[in-house]
Amino acid sequence: MKKIAPLLLLLVIVAASYLTWDFNPPSIVMETPLDAGTNSTIVVVVEDQGRGIESVQVTLKQGEYSSVLKQESNPPIYLPWEKNRKLILIEIAPETWMDRKKLKEGNFDLEVSATDSGDYGLFSDTVVKAFSMNLDMTPPGIEVLSEQHNIRRGGAEAVRYRIKGGSVQSGVLVGENRFLGYPLENDGKSAYAALFVWAYDQPEETPIKLWAEDAVGNRTEIILSCQKIDRSFRERRINVSEAFIDRVVPEIVRLSPDLELQGDKLQSYLLVNQDLRRENNRKLVEITSPVSGGIQWSEPFLQMRNSKVEALFADHRSYYYNGNKVDEQTHLGYDLASISHSPIEAANNGRVVFADNLGIYGNCMVLDHGMGLYSLYGHLSSMDAQSGSVVSRGDIIGHTGQTGLAGGDHLHFSMLIQGVQTNPLEWWDSSWIKLHVLGRISAEGEE
């Protein structure tokens, strides 16, 4: 019996060692495409299901050139319960691996070596995997086809251009605002067009650039010659009464579940005029950022019939309560009034992409007119079209009202291009549309 006990103990130790032994070598997976550009980040995932990873090395090789891009190691482990990291995400930024002086366009190899943590400090498994990759260092070219671009502060403009070489995205940059271009159908010359805005609050020195980016991230930016025409906007005083707050704020808060009425009436109003306004405008950017198709219209946009203009685009408003200035905001759109519950026509052919309550805008509809151009109709008493409906210029889509933060029955009308508010006045002008939009993006305009 005494001789059997040591043997049993030995068997238990061997069995325990076997059960905890790591039989799985590490795995190596390339997470990024094998085509790379000068701005590509290389991502590799190394994983081990056993005791974890002891060391990793990534080496780039092209001809006689070799460069170690990444080295990482962990201390060896000996005890059964010890573990190293089981998953390592390797991200190699372009400035780390991209050396224009030493690398050439074409094939190169990315060699990844991974060693797992051995059992009791012994018997490590090493896996070496080579990925054959292709380096594209040539960015796309851009040729401007339209001419004599000029733009007013807060206004819009269009440009027609051609991409030389492959491109997956292109368009216009106005400061930090990005406007995607759209391929023109039946052109035969790989031409694109983009609508863009010089926002009302951007500095005069804001650069305007055309840009193009290919599938591997190679990017070109060129300055677009565009004359800027500055202008000023009106200053307006808005007196806020307790009666107005009592009428509009509770209903707005009721329909905005994330807001709570404050004990103080003024604070409740400011919560709506500041925080909710900011959130509503963020939502508008989300709704109106996509470019879903090309222009589907050829006529100027309609202004509400028999309407009186009560507020202009980019009016700077100072709000007073009991004689004291309490807030400042910019009114981005036109306020148009006629008789109560006046019918509202679709300003142009389009598709309804939003028809719901939107905080300060009340019952609100947004139409997509193609190429990232949208129109907005706010404070409606009724909405006669649903989201997804296709409407034609002049179709009745609703009626005016005083929902939201409205002081009386009227229509708040806005125009937006890819999330950026622009002056509706231009879009009501047939001469402006012919010169700055339809003429710019047509082949006749190119000639």
Number of helical elements: 7
Kindly provide the radius of gyration, computed on alpha-carbon positions and rounded to a whole number of angstroms.
31 Å
Determine the mean pLDDT: 90
Count the strands? Answer: 32
- Beta-strand portion reads 35-45%
Name the structural class: alpha+beta
Shape: globular
Low-confidence stretches: 12-19
What percent of the residues sit in helical stretches (DSSP H or I)?
10-25%
Distance between the termini: 105 Å
Largest sheet, strands/sense/barrel: 8 strands, antiparallel
Describe the 3D structure.
- It is a single chain.
- By secondary structure, this protein is α+β, with helices and mostly antiparallel strands.
- It contains 7 helices and 32 strands.
- It is 17% helix and 41% strand.
- Strands 20, 23, 25, 26, 27, 29, 31 and 32 form an 8-stranded antiparallel beta sheet that branches.
